Amino acid sequence: MATRAPAVPVWGVTMSIHKLSAGSGYDYLTRQVAAADATDLDMPLADYYAAKGEAPGRWVGSGLGDLDGLEPGDVVTAEQMANLFGDGLHPLSTDENPLRLGAAFRTFSNDRAKEFAEQIVQRMEEANRAAGLPAKAAVDRATVSRIRSQVAAEFFAADHGRSPRDARELAGAVARYARFRTGVAGFDLTFSPVKSVSALWAVAPMPVARRIETAHDKAVAKALAFLEAHAIYTREGANGARQVETGGLVGAAFTHRDSRAGDPDLHTHVAVANKVRTTGGKWLAIYGHVLYEHVVAASEVYNTALERHLADDLGLEFAERPAEPGKRAVREVIGVDEQLCRAWSARRADILARQGELTTEFQATHGRPPTKTEAIGLAQQANLETREAKHEPRSLAEQRATWRAQGDAVLGAGGVEAMVNAAGGRTPAARSGEVTAGWVQEVAARVVAEVEARAAAWQDWHLQAEALRQVRAAATGVNLPAGDLGAVTRVVVDAARSRCVNLTPDLDDISEPEVLRRSDGISVYRHTGADRYTTTRVLDAEQRILASAGRRDGARVDERDVDLVLLEAHANGQGLNDGQRRLVTALATSGSRVQVALAPAGTGKTTAMRALARAWTQAGGRARTGGNVIGLAPSATAAAELREATGMPCDTLAKLVHELDNPRLAGVAPSWAAAIGPEALVLIDEAGMADTLTLDRVIAYVLDRGASVRLVGDDQQLAAIGAGGILRDLTRGHHAARLDVPVRFTDPAEAQASLRLREGDPAALGFYLDNDRIHPVDPATAADTVYRAWATDRAAGLDSIMLAPTRDLVTDLNQRAQADRLAVADGPDGGGVWLADGCTAHAGDVVLTRRNDRRLRVSATDWVKNGDRWTVTAVARDGALTVRRQASGLTTLLPAGYVGEHVQLGYAATVHAAQGATCDTLHGILTGTETRQIAYTMLSRARHANHVYITTAVPDAELAGDVHVPSLFDLDATRTATETLEEVLGRDGSAVSATTTSFDATAPATRLHQAATRYEDAVHAAAEHAVGPDRAAAIERHAAHLLPGLTDEPAWPALHARLLLAEADGNEATSLLSTAIHERELVSADDPAAVLAWRIDRLAPTARGVLPWLPAVPQRLVDDDVWGKYLSARATAVNEHATTVIRDAQARLADVDERPRWADAVVLPDDLATVLAVWRAAMGVPDHDRRPTGPAQTSPPLHAYQRHLDRAVASWQPTSAGRPWIRLAVAATGHHDDHTAKLAEHLADLHATGINPVAAVEHALARGPLPDDHPTAALDARLTSLEQHTRRQVEQRRLAERQQAAPSDHRRRSRDMSHGPSL
């Protein structure tokens, strides 16, 4: 199922979160504990100061109150960690007395993985014997990797009938065959202060260092308390329908002193067990979604508390330091030298460099990138090889001595003392102000302004996080002790919330019984984060834009005049295709005051806009005698490109808004702005990247002056950094003009694949896999691999670009390219200058300017713009750069101040900076955390070949630069490159407006999903209540007795609920279970509880309820005074909402512009499509999930009904034309998959146009083996390429025949069918 990325950008945080795998994921923490005797772990401070390694962990969390024998602050032992995080037991469990905390952590069986592991072990023993060693002797890593590759290749050959054809297939084979899935044992929350705090802690006198560490500990405690109050919940019921309260978290806190590079890095790991106790006494898993949503807010709690504690205790002051564009400024300690922080980051760079070298050697040897385990080994080797000779664990005394010496080396004699005195000896600023109601309202207003500037809608945790930032900044002038922070922040959040509009209030008017309400009275079905907010300012702006789009009183061009312009363009060799002509005609002749044109990447948008501008200039305006056209764009670079392509005057949206906010003297405003009048048409390019508030200002101004607006863009490329999503609303409500045929790509199959990428269809990957465009890489070598491919293309004369999703990865690529250039040039030509990205620039380097500055002129009409790329021609002594623009050759001087803050190396770029660019080849990096929009924008830049390099071997946190997370923590490291891309395509990052958020919350499908979910769970909850806790417990004990381990199975909660429902319906649950268990064997079942649920459903079938797959209310509950009326109301709500969904589905299916995307993916009769619409709505399947029935269901009644629907859908797929070609499609690929029906339809189309499908398939397969992933889609793409190639051959032959024919030969020639495919 597709997921939606966070609506509000997540900024850099100092509390990170990572999953802990069951088993040994916690080892990293206990391995680093100081080597003290277990009976003497409560050592005096002096002993701890001298001990090697880290201090032992301490138990934390309110949940300890539910664990007898443990108190907060108790020392954590390795045995206790093994019990809790390894086996899910009480930490004090023993072999004789294992104390269970609910179900054991699940390890998912995998026979293939077991066989793979056994083969590797066998080969390792054989290698040892061949070397004359004991069979069980340790084997070096290189040999293990070689064996792993060999066995994986053999397994692959057995499954596919051939060897892996490339590194991607071999790496994928290793990942799949070695995959063992384990449950989530917990979460590692890592708290780290800003760099300046760690630096000061490292070199300050010991009493001061202790006080810094105490402040850090207090801040960690504040953050944990915040999480317990807002985020530590669990779920119960059908599909986790109920969010229920818990007794708090159980955690083990470990404070570490340094990074893996040995630099001072005070940080605390809190391993939070994935075990929480409900108020009803059940031990269940943490509600992970809510926990993850509150990470940023918890991080800000920590930051704010730390800053206030340090200010109160040591008088430290903090100030913002400039950050890179797009990042929030970081508050650092005033007085701490930045040089020292930079110096302590250098060794990490050395480690990464050596790791890259080792990884390159590994890939050259083994023909694939390393797996996660192998990458860990290479990182450890790099760490050891770059360490000083003494690399065993050091005591704190030794560390502090080393850090002091390093500080002296960087800052000079007396420098450390001067820095410490400068930081701690400051006179605190006077805090004469008080926290008044006015102060609270001022801070709340800033909170709302900040979140409003970043998204159209937000959740409560966004307000909490921003309130903490604003309170932290505003607290410098008021008397606000650390102890009052929480209360003041809550008041600010309440005040900010009062300024917002709730877009998604709970519309359910059925009051829950008391047992279905939390302690605050809120329904258990109302989950944290369900409320989404906006402001009346955003809502009003959206409504004004939507209303403007309904006006038809604008100027227009006569359609005949448009035709003349198009004929003229054709005669001049600038012909437009059918789609472009339709778009130009629609935009020119509509008379709409505001109109949208959707243009996917590479569809010829610029050509169409050029023709539109010409038509309007020649025959537009109110009198249709000619008007004027003005272009606007979100960025100066886009405006410049539009100006160059069309010749019209162009500028930025921000420039026009600035003119409106700062009116000039009469006659001084830019001529293009003054020219906006009744005869004008304003074209806004890349409109999807413009924020709603800016668009509202511009559109209102343009319409007030009598002009019209055309918004041109793509709602599936990158969105605005701000309140956005209005483009999609306009498209939905006002039938946008569209371009839908990509013309950029040389291969028509790539054009088709790009459109599938845009829609998030995984079948798009078939083309890229088949054409070797998807490359798995290790992060350590990603930059080098991409650079080498890019450099090869550039050397071949191709226009190639390198892209990455983050600035850190872009910096890696830039430094790699610069290093190669300098190596060729025998070193830099003269001195260099520091840039904003932390790199240095020398003469000859390519740089990128990142800020518009109209004062820095390039010509009389041009200036330095954000996104301009330059070559450095000279470096001045003061840090200024003389640069030559690559596009125009014009030169200018960039002052030192601008260079240091707004210039970076420019060999590579972020995906955002590249939107709108076109090149010959593209080489880009994806880490797997991106959205579909980023992947689509990246992979649609190049005409000839778009290559993507997927980092798959190490945790996502490593890619983001988090140096604290141990690699053992990652649970997703076995994803293949294909699986990673599939996840990316399923992650929707498109902007969503406040209007759409509100619309979706009240949509019939949403209401039915909520009603059906609540009804189904309420029936089970009522059954459990009616049966009573004693009988429910007796049934569970009986199950555990009949089949030991049954109650630990993943499906036990569902089976238990089904047994309770049967009991409430008059059956004897224990007898039913006994019958089901003894019916036949369960040994072969992966999850016996799931199998038994099926058997119970057959032995005691439940009457169907208001929907065919929902249970009816047992008569015992119908007659219940409390539950009867409540469940009746729930059933009525389901029925009413289902009826509404049916009416809505019928209307949408009848309107070609409103048909949901899933309905367009299949050919179905309307009655079946309507039934599917009800099912999808009730199950919460989003429109963009193209599977007709959505994700597979496991519950017996749901699974049975889904199979019924799937069979009904299959009977209509493919169409009658495609059905005869199914056998060929399956025979060609060797299996049947989700794309088989589409391939059969394609074969039918080929047959209908005179191309022999059998011969076409044979020709396509002659290219070589299909990829192991998405082979059917790959074959489909090959046929598309072949079909277009064949058609071009036919056209060329016919053209040659006409040219050879005598001029007097006017005889009509019959169609020559011999010119079919050249196969």
From TrEMBL:
Every TrwC relaxase domain range: 22-408
Highest classification ranks of the organism: Bacteria, Bacillati, Actinomycetota, Actinomycetes, Micrococcales
Positions of region (Disordered): 1286-1319
SUPFAM superfamilies listed in its UniProt record: Origin of replication-binding domain, RBD-like, P-loop containing nucleoside triphosphate hydrolases
Domain of life: Bacteria
Annotated source species: Antribacter soli
Pfam short name (any one): AAA_30
Amino acid composition bias (Basic and acidic residues), ranges on this chain: 1286-1297
Name the record gives this protein: Relaxase domain-containing protein
